[in-house]
Amino acid sequence: MTGPAGRAFDRLLVAALLLAGWQGASAAWGEYWASGPLPAAAAFWRLVASGSLPTNALYTLEATAWGFAIGLPPGILLPFLLRRHPRIRAVLDPFMVAAYGVPKLALAPLFIVWFGIGIGSKVALVASVTFFIVYFNAMAGVAAVDRRLIATVRVMGAGEWRVLTDVVWPASVPFVFAGIRTATPYAVGGTVVTELISSNRGLGHLIQLSANRFQTNEVFAALFGVLILVIGCNLAVQAVERRLLRWRPPVFAASGAAG
């Protein structure tokens, strides 16, 4: 099968294979070490019914959203500001690369010391992760703009603002959204890991609490909550991207989504 129906069938097949492998691992190692799909599903619905999973998931989502709101704008705007200042960009580039190379999760303990165990440390980590990923993708988009096209619109009398809004920005938007899509799972994962280290709320806290109680079923249930959160955030980003990039030809849009 081809088309949407074929993709849906292939995804269901992959999901079935993953569940079968999960069940096989549970049978081989025992439910204490690897909870089976059915016990994990029962624990998931139990946590949902008690309100524990939704409450902690909303806390994780809130921290991720605030981190995105803080880290995303400078990650997008800075490459466009540096476009006309190549010397400043060249000076900053090695420092940006070095800062990007520092494992952000290694900074989590520092963020906890600086901002406490509350939401501030999670927001700071997500903002740092989001900024660098989006920054380098946006910078790649700015650098990839056809210089001949810019020269053409300048000859036609366009000023710097028109060049930026009518040429550079439309050409760079796919790169920006590629960075946002890449940053989304890292941002959620960074929030959860920070909650694992020190927090009194969130999905990471729920995972840590369940692990301390040796409740393997609830650990898998909380991990499933993280998976749902990542998928939901990714679908939201894709919906915004489709709405903002409706002007792209279908072939280009399909190739961009595949990348």
List the helices and strands and how they pair.
Layout: H1 3-29, H2 37-50, H3 52-82, H4 86-101, H5 108-115, H6 119-143, H7 147-155, H8 160-197, H9 203-212, H10 216-244, H11 250-258
Overall description:
The protein is mainly α and 259 residues long. It folds into two domains: 1-34; 35-258, Orthogonal Bundle (MetI-like fold), CATH 1.10.3720.10. Helix content is 83%, strand content 0%. It contains eleven helices and no strands. It has helices at residues 3-29, 37-50, 52-82, 86-101, 108-115, 119-143, 147-155, 160-197, 203-212, 216-244, 250-258.
Portion in strands: under 5%
Task: Give the mean pLDDT.
Answer: 82
| Morphology call | globular
Low-confidence stretches: 251-259
**Level-2 CATH architecture of the largest domain:** Orthogonal Bundle
Class inferred from helices and paired strands: mainly alpha
Assign the CATH class of the largest domain.
Mainly Alpha
What Rg do the Cα atoms give? 22 Å
Count of discrete alpha- or pi-helical segments spanning 4 or more residues? 11
